[in-house]
TrEMBL record:
<dbReference type="InterPro" id="IPR038637">
    <property type="entry name" value="NPCBM_sf"/>
</dbReference>
<dbReference type="InterPro" id="IPR013222">
    <property type="entry name" value="Glyco_hyd_98_carb-bd"/>
</dbReference>
<dbReference type="Pfam" id="PF08305">
    <property type="entry name" value="NPCBM"/>
</dbReference>
<feature type="domain" description="Glycosyl hydrolase family 98 putative carbohydrate-binding module">
    <location>
        <begin position="265"/>
        <end position="416"/>
    </location>
</feature>
<protein>
    <submittedName>
        <fullName>NPCBM/NEW2 domain protein</fullName>
    </submittedName>
</protein>
<dbReference type="InterPro" id="IPR008979">
    <property type="entry name" value="Galactose-bd-like_sf"/>
</dbReference>
């Protein structure tokens, strides 16, 4: 297994971090049990372990450290691409951030005891306390989303004007103004300098106008069993608990509730974070399709082939997506699948997947190509990019025109090779 390098760390810092992780491991050992349930671990070198537990983990600006346990034996966590995978979100009170992160309340209570809003902060009840988000970082506060048919993973586009929020009422109506406060029983909305109070039970959701907030580059994706998914700046797992920092808030909980840990560094670059050099789509009839990043073509998550992914690319047949390469030694890795059909839709879809490399100005096939059909298990691919100036992902029609031909490149990534 290749050991990923950790840049920017001097010897003293390296020793300090190893000491921290060693302390975490000792703490875990004293508990007498693993802190995480088993999950699949995928490594940059291509190794895949179906049943693995993480006994200690730390990721921040300096890099990734951790200890993996396989069949009772400890091993280093170097080169981890992901552990586990995200879950579908349960329908509860939740906060959705401007960066796409979501945190679901862990209590199935009435919203009266679960959320608060003031001029500076949005609060969500979780565990024994509150998680406080800077108001400008919050896009949505969902109180009773089911009352208006909202899905936290498929939220509609709602236009907001700077300084004005949109209130979605249980009956389907909307109010526009500035949310001054939300308490355990009342929403106060200011409209044309007049305060209007609305009973909390009449409010389904708030689309907040957000604001300017300094965003830091996320270091890790963190998924929880209730469907929460955070783009975290820091994550520490120790003993039976975890602490994640995201968008100015600190989220803590039981380590056993973690279902996804996906570092966003360590020699891995996701195609969904890069700008392509070219995209072309040839419609089967007349409907053009854009490609999408980190989400499905129809507004939901990346789900297909028995997998759910937080990172990846979706394309509709027939299409070609091209990325320039920098010439450094690297490989292209992904899992390919056809997206699961939408609820109530027919289970159709068959796609021909091919990868081409541009060498000496010409497109050359990098693999033999695979025809994948809806419901078939996702297939891993791993391609050496040596000598290539560009990488092209191509999806084409297979069996039945383009019906259901939503092609997924799950966790599509460029992996540095030492």
């Amino acid at each position: 297994m290749r050991h990923a390098s950790v840049s920017g760390m001097n010897r003293a810092e390296t020793q300090r971090r190893r000491g921290v992780v060693a302390a975490l491991v000792v703490g875990c050992l004293f508990t007498g049990s693993f802190v995480l349930a088993d999950g699949t671990a995928v490594f940059a070198g291509g190794e895949r372990i179906e049943e693995a537990a993480i006994k200690a983990f730390s990721v921040d600006r300096d890099g990734v450290e951790g200890v993996l346990v396989v069949d009772g034996e400890e091993r280093e966590l170097s080169g981890l691409v992901r552990w586990g995978e995200p879950r579908a979100a349960v329908t509860r009170t939740a906060v959705v951030l401007e960066d796409g992160s979501r945190l679901v309340c862990d209590r199935p209570w009435s919203p009266a005891g679960l959320a608060r809003v003031d001029e500076a902060t949005v609060r969500l009840r979780r565990g024994k306390g509150w998680v406080d988000f800077p108001r400008e970082s919050v896009a949505w506060l969902l109180l009773t989303p089911e009352a208006v048919g909202l899905d936290v993973e498929r939220l509609p586009s709602v236009d907001v004007v700077d300084g004005e929020d949109v209130v979605l009422l249980v009956g389907g109506d909307r109010l526009i103004g500035r949310v001054e406060s939300l308490t355990n029983d009342t929403l106060r909305l200011v409209v044309a300098d007049e305060a209007i109070d609305t009973p909390l039970e009449s409010v389904a959701a708030l689309r907040l106008s957000g604001g300017s907030i300094e965003r830091t580059e996320a270091k890790c994706l963190v998924g929880l069993a209730d469907g929460s998914l955070l783009k975290a700046d820091d994550l520490t797992v120790a003993n039976d608990s975890f602490t994640a920092k995201a968008s100015g808030a600190e989220v803590t909980g039981e380590a056993a509730t973690l279902v996804l840990i996906q570092p966003l560094a360590s020699g891995v670059r996701y195609l969904s974070d890069l700008e392509p050099a070219d995209y072309r789509h040839t419609p089967y009839l007349d409907l053009p399709w854009p490609y999408t990043r980190d989400g499905g073509l129809r507004g939901g998550p990346l789900v297909g082939g028995g997998r759910r992914a937080a990172k990846g690319i979706a394309m509709h047949t027939a299409a070609r997506l091209v990325y320039r390469l920098d010439g450094s030694p690297q490989r292209f890795q992904a899992e390919i699948a056809v997206a699961d059909p939408e609820p109530g839709a027919a289970a159709t879809g068959s796609v021909s997947f091919r990868v081409y490399l541009v060498k000496e100005g010409k497109f050359e096939p990098a693999n033999e190509g695979y025809v994948m059909r809806v419901g078939e298990a996702a297939r891993p691919i791993d391609i050496d990019l040596a000598g290539a100036a560009a990488l092209a992902l191509v999806v084409d029609f297979a069996d039945d025109g383009d019906a259901g031909d939503d092609a997924l490149w799950l966790d599509a990534r460029l992996v540095s090779v030492e």
